Amino acid sequence: MSTVNTPKKDDLKSQAGNVMDKAKEAGQKAADTAGDLAHAAGQKASDMASAATHKAGDLAKTAGQKADSIVAAAGEKARDAADAVRQHGPREGMLGSATRYAADTIEEGGRYLEKEGLSGMMGDVTDLVKRNPVPALLVGIGIGFLLGRALDRS
Predict the structure, then answer these.
(1) Which residue, 119, 114, 118, is CA-closest to 78?
(2) Is the residue at 8 inside a domain?
(3) Rounded to the nearest 5 degrees, what angle is found at the Cα of 83, between the Cα atoms of 79 and 89?
(4) For every one of its 154 residues, what pLDDT tens digit does the chain have, with 9 covering 90 and above?
(5) Alpha carbon separation from 44 to 37, 39, 41, 50 (Å, rounded)
(6) How many domains does the chain contain in total?
(7) Separation CA 106–CA 124 (nearest Å)
(8) Model's pTM, two decimal places?
(9) Would residue 106 count as lying in a domain?
């Protein structure tokens, strides 16, 4: 018996090849679709992260502006306090000089707070620590010690 390819076998092979091609094509389309979906999801996540970062920056900026306005208001109150010290304190003699000096110092501090705000104060403190690192470290240790003792008593 010789094996001769009958048209039926050839048709079956051809159909099997067509099915394989279609399966490969469907698999490729599924892979492409999955890749497109993954890319779209990644882009959406990136957009959401960018929006969240932008919103956080806006909130931080708003908080900084509010803090600066609070510090400026404290500076204005300090200047008012300086005026009250001048009006109600002694005007003559050694006590008068001390009163004027105290009022001038309070007023100068108030002007500084109004002009610099919180961000300016932070910059000045940073510069001070950079210029004097060892004393700043010692002051920090001292403040930490005092805070520790105060909290220990509570």
Answers:
(1) 114
(2) no
(3) 135
(4) 455 556 677 777 788 788 888 888 888 888 888 888 888 888 888 888 888 888 888 888 888 888 888 888 888 999 999 999 999 888 888 988 999 999 999 999 999 988 888 888 889 999 999 999 999 999 999 999 999 999 988 6
(5) 10, 8, 5, 10
(6) 1
(7) 18
(8) 0.51
(9) yes
Name the DSSP letter for residue 1: -
Could you give the 3-state DSSP secondary structure of residue 3? coil
Tokens representing 111 are 């002007």
Residue (of 119, 102, 113) closest to 75 by Cα position: 113
Q: Please give the DSSP secondary-structure letter assigned to residue 92.
A: S
What the block records as the tokens of 53 is 């970062």
The answer to whether residue 143 is domain-embedded is: yes
What's the token pair of residue 80?
Answer: 């008012």
CA distance 79 to 149: 34
